[in-house]
Amino acid sequence: MLSKLVAHLHDPPTLRLNTKVKELKALGRPVIHLGSGEPFTPTPPGAITACEELLEHGEVHYTATRGIPELLDAIVRETKIHHGIDITHKNLLVCPGAKNAIVNLFAAIFNHHDEVLIPAPYWVSYPDITRLVGARPVTVPPLRGTFYPDIDALHRAITPQTRGIIVNSPNNPSGAVFPDELLRELVVFAERNDLFLILDDIYHQQIFDDRRQASIFGFTAKPLERSKLVVINGVSKTYGMTGFRIGWLIANSEVSSGASKIAAQTVSCASHLTQLGALGALTGDQAPVTDLRLTLERNRDTLLAELGALSELTLIPPEGTFYAFPDFSAYNESSAQLAEYLLEQALVVTVPGREFGMEGHLRLSFCGDRDELIEGIRRIRWALDPAAPRERECGTEVLRKT
Ligand SMILES: Cc1ncc(COP(=O)(O)O)c(C=O)c1O
């Protein structure tokens, strides 16, 4: 009944797990969600006021496909601050979420059977978005012992069909922040091979230890109009505004116009209401952005301290985002089995590493409540420690290892 395309797509695991957690909570089970992909910070007041003002006038309409001019202006300013380049509205396309921006982009730049390089560990949606537009995802393992792309391995993965590479730094699921030199090498690699280089920059405000990430635009001699560098961003992670569904792409005007054609025939435009919400967030008080980063950084430190007691575990400390990606293979080589075991035994939700292209790892989120994070990791330690007592009191329940 369904298309071949659908048969090749997967349900995003994080959305599936959110539903599972809601079901367990509704049954009163003391489940701990370390699989979440969104910071639970309140919506910035500036975003709420902007939406309220529009609703008061009661005039919520279609907008230009690219986005409302005021939001485009705000993104132009934000791009100047974070990437140091001057862009115009023609270089932008506002979409219902960064995910949708990637879909529109891929549909605009890749043909059937083109190949897209996706260094592991990667965000779960890249391979399926690539398939969605008829292109072929080619996943490439990272540099040994790191979560960074391996430039030599990327060279080896190139074929006459290769057209692009998508990378994400700060990285979901590993929390890695690529060194500036690596970003430079990626730009050189892409330009020498005439590939699109897409940087998913959605966690750019969540880099720890006073570090900053250089802009890829600083590593090319080409003006944006002649460049194949593309940056993806949005308000979901920076402002905890996942439900607003606003993201965007920055590209040369031919590419952004091509992506805009796809958007015009699929969604027409992003929601007028939430575009104003995004504008309110971008132009409002930015203190919550710093507060969130500092909270995440503290949570990262808590997670490292708590995980330290698991002697068999290998962990590269996250440098940004709100994810850690420890290697649990000494406990179980199958990440899906281990995640299932932790859910059943300890009522802790984690995401199997194989979803991100690295078997043996689990993704643990530290964007939620700190006490829950501590309790979640202690439960994992209890479940994995053969010497631990068989029973453990957890809120309203006594968990029993079977
Ligand atoms: C790397 C990465 N890119 C994009 C997205 C999607 O962002 P949005 O909510 O704006 O669609 C996510 C969400 O988890 C992500 O982790």
Written overview of the protein:
The protein is of the alpha/beta class and about 400 residues long. The protein has two domains: about 5-40 and about 285-400, Aspartate Aminotransferase, domain 1; about 45-285, Aspartate Aminotransferase, domain 2 (3-Layer(aba) Sandwich), CATH 3.40.640.10. It contains 13 helices and 14 strands. It has helices at about 5, 15-25, 45-55, 70-85, 100-110, 125-130, 150-155, 180-190, 255-265, 270-285, 285-305, 335-345, 370-385; strands at about 30-35, 90-95, 115-120, 135-140, 160-170, 195-200, 230-235, 245-250, 325, 350, 350, 360-365, 390-395, 395-400. The strands form four sheets. Strands 2-8-7-6-5-3-4 form a seven-stranded mixed beta sheet, with helices on both faces. The protein has a three-stranded antiparallel beta sheet with strand order 9-12-11. A two-stranded parallel ribbon has the order 1-10. Strand 3 (about 115-120), helix 6 (about 125-130) and strand 4 form a beta-alpha-beta unit. It is globular, with a radius of gyration of 21 Å. It starts with a helix and ends with a strand. The model has no long low-confidence stretch (mean pLDDT about 95). It binds pyridoxal-5'-phosphate.
